[in-house]
Design brief:
heterotrimer; A: 331 residues; mainly alpha; two-stranded antiparallel ribbon; B: 286 residues; ABC transporter involved in vitamin B12 uptake, BtuC; 11 helices; globular
């Protein structure tokens, strides 16, 4: 069996185990897991950019926000999306995220590296400014309460049922994005990440490739946003604030960029520390900051890279005559 | 809106820009040399203010607090570069993310050390006065901020243009690989510049502390502003930082005074436009 | 803190998750969840809130109404999102009888629906959004307020300003819902009495450089009404005075409260503001409270502490009335609603789940109080409006016909 297949099997096993364990935990754990999974979808959308295209975005909250506000406004003002039309709302949320990304991409894709980071940050701040100041639409600082969840045969007010809905969306997103990165298009993205100039010389329209990746990431950001509105029950400027974008990016780095599932690991850790550990100890911020710093310093490929490190360390140990160093640790 | 209105608004904008220059110039220099955006830069600003408060509480001297705080934070910056950033080698993205981690750690540490009250740095009483010209009030403290920024700006310019280290810094900004080739110790340059950036940010914190207050959250409020300065002016350029600071100070001031409804856009929309047209900023080099 | 034991057993809790256990608690214990920011930018306010409640608990040997209290503090990190999660944690995992807290008005709006979905009592000692106990009163039947509604103190201040012969006022207030409601209350009462608001300026919340706004202020108006929050409060009066402004400055509740007052300079002496509490209130009960609080926590209590101390007292009395047990949310709200107590802030009773209470017009003075050796800034009470309703003098029906105070209401009729 190839190592890729083993990885896939492990991921499937872990996800199945989660689907079994979490609904049997306390309600609070179910709640946290649901929230973490929504953020995992957002993190995967960041990973498409960071891990597979080499673009670090600090503005992913914009697409998350537009999905969330769309859901909040449609359900509270027009009572749309509370029945079977929920599925239409999901589609509209993805469309809104994609459309916004299509617009912002015109500005952002030209830039690369740190400049891309800065411009996405500025774009994200523009959306935040809108959410904050356009009170007639967004409720301003107070935000919009989303008091009811959709119902279509399922009782989504039950946190466990709702968890399974989000879980389902997560699995489908993971699958779709996995197919995407495995496709020829995904391979060209990786090519751009490694050697953009070379790809251009080979005749690829690298701008278009990056642009499409950006739009797809926007769509999944929008999806996460719609789910967040119903998970959280309130949408406010806080949802689109800079730190949401920072969180999503850090989750990916923490878990491991370019792995998709790394985002889940990152989301689980961030929510675990911030919302679970913080109920136990007052110094949780040091734990979170410490994990960030240590991971970035010592695990360049994130926590998902640990097995590879161990394997390498093992190989190293068994052939201790071999002077080859663990090059990848410091590279 | 008569002439007086425009004069006082312009003066306010310039004095705010002076403060932004102190924060932005350090960020810009760090970027020029190391190609990283230091997301802990706002933290240095805040730490500078807090250290100054402690110095004032201990010695009662405001004048002493300025250099002490700036130097203390410069040492923090130096250690951070030496111990954490350098081992990563040339890897801007990871370095940027590392500075975010530090920003979080500094935030909590500041809260634990100094508490979360809204505090204020009180300069000597003479600064509460204003210069009155034809019934227009020019607060003395704002004049002081402009003078400080000018002095620092000139000193930095002289250091960059007239000294050996300055020449080495300029060479590193232009082409780090080439600089290494001709025997410049770029590691040392990075360390010096990172410490200098922290020094300037902390200086901004002490001076700005009497004007903005010192309180938790100030770090992440200053950060986007410093970004705006650097983005508009262009990264790695001292002159660019000066012009960027002035532009942001004036745009922010006049934007808020004339179009209060869209006051956030007056800051971020120009940023986006400039980046879209010239991704390296007005005076930046690729 | 009573939570220490629980905090020391994270392992147990983790084991709990793994096994999917929920621990049922004993019957005679009163479980109170408290949500306030303990980290992040509002951490100090959060600590002041907890300290107020804790002081009352400590003075009563950890019992309220004869019941042992399990007091669980959760860190909201100053965010609505996190507040909701923590509230659900308190309800679902700790099975609290009630949860208390929430700092910002927006947090109040975020938490109120949780009380609905879980049918658990939510007491708001600070979050002041008017409509939670006004136009949306029936929407949140498990919501109860022991603090204040935003416009409650400024109605009184508007009347007072008018009675002082002030004819024209410029308002400058933080640009968000809390600012609109405080300005709205002031403007309504002030103009109904014959005054004119001639200009309204809305700097964004978080503004510290008032340079862009100060030059636009109409200098021929008789006074300025300012509503500042947090760090804004320190900078505005200072910068305004430096710009040569010599007339009167009035302020909303948070512009001069004791959370910011100790860090202010002498330039604020003489400024007037209104709130339902002043630490300089000269009553024996307040003097005892200020001294006890200052002794324990090293600072003069702000209203954030007083309102939580009083909340603990209200729960204490209500549990006693219920016969030393928690009678369920509906019954408990009935008991609290019928309460009349003499709190630290003065007499308090309730109307539509919001306090009827004294509103104090307070002037900043530098003086010695309560035997403290140093001259400090205090909010001296210069006039008391007794038993002020959230509907001011308009009556509920008439008041609720008008929309909630906003940027557009009341309209600025006298602005050019």
């Amino acid at each position: 069996m190839s190592s890729e297949k083993i990885k896939i099997l492990v991921v499937i096993a872990v996800l199945l185990a989660l689907a079994y364990i979490i609904p049997h935990s306390t309600s609070f754990v179910v709640l946290l897991a649901t929230r973490a999974l929504v953020f995992a979808i957002l993190a995967m959308s960041v990973d498409i950019l960071l891990g597979f295209t080499g673009l670090a975005s600090l503005g992913q909250a914009a697409y998350f926000g537009i999905g969330a506000y769309l859901a909040a406004i449609m359900t509270t003002r027009y009572h749309f999306g509370l029945n079977w039309d929920f599925w239409l709302l999901i589609f509209l949320g993805m469309l809104a995220g994609a459309a916004l990304a299509a617009f912002f991409g015109l500005f952002a894709i030209r830039a690369s590296n740190v400049y891309f980071l800065m411009i996405t940050l500025a774009l994200g701040q523009c959306v935040w400014g809108l959410a904050y100041r356009w009170s007639s639409l967004t409720g301003g600082d107070n935000g919009i309460n989303v008091p009811v969840r959709p119902s279509f045969g399922l009782d989504l007010t039950n946190e466990r049922t709702f968890f399974f809905l989000v879980y389902g969306f997560f699995i489908v997103s993971l699958l779709l994005l996995y197919i995407l990165v495995r496709s020829p298009f995904g391979h060209s993205l990786a090519g751009i990440r490694e050697r953009e100039l070379r790809m251009r010389i080979l005749g690829y329209n690298t701008w278009l490739h990056k642009y499409i990746a950006f739009v797809i990431a926007g769509a999944f950001g929008g999806l996460a946003g719609v789910l967040w509105a119903f998970t959280n029950g309130i949408v406010s400027p806080e949802t689109v604030v800079l730190t949401t974008s920072v969180d999503a990016l850090l989750m990916v780095v923490l878990g491991g960029a370019g792995t998709l599932v790394g985002g889940v690991v990152g989301a689980a850790i961030v929510f675990g520390v911030r919302e679970y550990l913080s109920t136990l100890v007052p110094w949780w911020q040091y734990v979170l900051g410490g994990i960030y710093v240590l991971t970035i310093l010592y695990l360049p490929s994130g926590l998902m890279g640990i097995p590879a490190h161990i394997r390498q360390w093992w190989i190293q140990k068994s052939k201790d005559k071999n002077p080859k160093k663990l090059a990848s640790v410091t590279s | 809106m008569d002439t007086k209105f425009w004069i006082i608004q312009a003066f306010n904008g310039i004095s705010y820009g002076a403060l932004l220059f102190l924060v932005g110039s350090g960020l810009s220099l760090i970027f020029g040399v190391m190609r990283i955006v230091n997301l802990a830069h706002g933290s240095y600003f805040l730490l500078g203010g807090y250290v100054a408060l402690s110095v004032i509480a201990a010695t009662g001297s405001w004048a002493l607090s300025i250099p002490t705080a700036a130097l203390a934070v410069a040492i923090i910056g130096l250690l951070m570069e030496r111990i954490f950033l350098r081992p990563l080698g040339f890897d801007p993205l990871r370095q940027v993310l590392l500075t975010v981690g530090f920003a979080f750690l500094f935030q909590q540490a500041a809260l634990d050390i100094w508490g979360g009250n809204n505090m204020d740095i009180n300069p000597p009483a003479v600064f509460n006065n204003s210069i009155v010209i034809d019934s227009v009030y020019f607060p003395l403290y704002r004049v002081f901020m402009i003078v400080m920024a000018l002095a620092i700006g000139i000193a930095l310019w002289l250091a960059m243009e007239k000294t050996r280290v300055g020449a080495a810094v300029r060479a590193t900004v232009d082409d780090a690989q080439m600089a290494r080739g001709v025997g410049i110790d770029t590691n040392r340059i990075s360390m010096i510049i990172f410490a200098l950036g922290a020094f300037l940010a902390a200086l901004g914190g002490v001076i700005g502390g009497a004007f903005l207050g010192i309180y938790p959250g100030l770090d992440f409020e200053m950060l986007p502003l410093a970004f705006a300065v650097v983005i508009i002016g262009g990264m790695g350029s001292l002159g660019g930082a000066a012009i960027g600071a002035l532009a942001v100070g004036l745009a922010d001031n006049f934007g808020k005074a004339l179009f209060p409804e869209v006051s956030y856009f007056t800051l971020y929309a120009p940023m986006v436009l400039i980046l879209a047209i010239k991704p390296t900023g007005l005076f930046g080099r690729e | 803190m009573t939570t220490t034991l629980r905090r020391l057993s994270p392992l147990l809790a983790i084991a709990g998750i793994a096994l999917g256990m929920t621990s049922p608690a004993g019957a005679e214990e009163l479980r109170i969840g408290f949500i306030s920011p303990m980290t992040g930018i509002f951490a100090q306010i959060g600590k002041d809130m907890v300290n107020g409640f804790q002081l009352y608990l400590d003075e009563h040997h950890g019992k309220l109404g004869g019941m042992d209290v399990k007091f669980i503090v959760e860190d909201s990190q100053g965010k609505g999102d996190t507040s909701v999660t923590k509230a659900k944690k308190l309800v679902l995992q700790d099975h609290v009888h009630m949860f208390i807290g929430g700092l910002l008005a927006s947090t109040g709006y975020a938490l109120a629906p949780v009380s609905n979905s879980e049918k658990t009592l939510y007491i708001a000692p600070v979050a002041a959004a008017d409509d939670l106990t006004q136009r949306q009163l029936s929407k949140y039947p498990y919501f109860f307020r022991t603090g204040w509604s935003s416009s409650q103190p400024t109605h009184a201040l508007g009347q007072w300003a008018c009675d002082q012969g002030i004819k024209t006022v410029v308002t400058i207030a933080a640009d968000y819902a809390f600012g609109y409601e405080q300005v709205g209350g002031f403007q309504k009462a002030f103009e109904d009495c014959g005054g004119k608001v001639v200009q309204k300026i809305w700097p964004p919340i978080g503004t510290k450089d008032f340079g862009p706004y100060i030059p636009s202020i109409k200098r021929n108006a008789d006074a300025i009404f300012s509503l500042m929050v947090g760090p804004m409060s320190l900078q505005f009066p200072k910068q305004l005075r430096r710009s040569g402004y010599k007339k009167r400055i009035l302020g909303g509740g948070t512009s001069y409260d004791e959370f910011v007052l100790p860090f202010m300079g002498d330039e604020v002496i003489g400024d007037v503001s209104s709130l339902m509490y002043s630490a300089a209130l000269e009553t024996p009960k307040n003097e005892t409270f200020v001294k006890a609080y200052r002794k324990k926590y090293g600072k003069v209590p702000s209203y954030y502490s007083e309102t939580n101390y009083t909340t603990a007292e209200i729960i204490d009395i209500s549990i006693k009335k219920a016969g030393g047990k928690y009678p369920g949310a509906d019954k408990f709200i009935d008991i609290m609603s019928g309460l009349k107590l003499d709190a630290v802030r003065g007499p308090v009773s309730f109307e539509d789940r919001n306090p009827i209470q004294n509103i104090y017009i307070k002037k900043v003075e530098k003086k010695k109080m309560f035997g403290y050796p140093k001259a400090e800034l205090w909010n001296t009470v210069i006039k008391t409006y007794p038993n002020v309703s959230q509907y001011w003098t308009y009556g509920k029906e008439k008041f609720l016909k008008q929309p909630v105070y906003s940027k557009d209401f009341p309209r600025c009729k006298f602005c050019e």
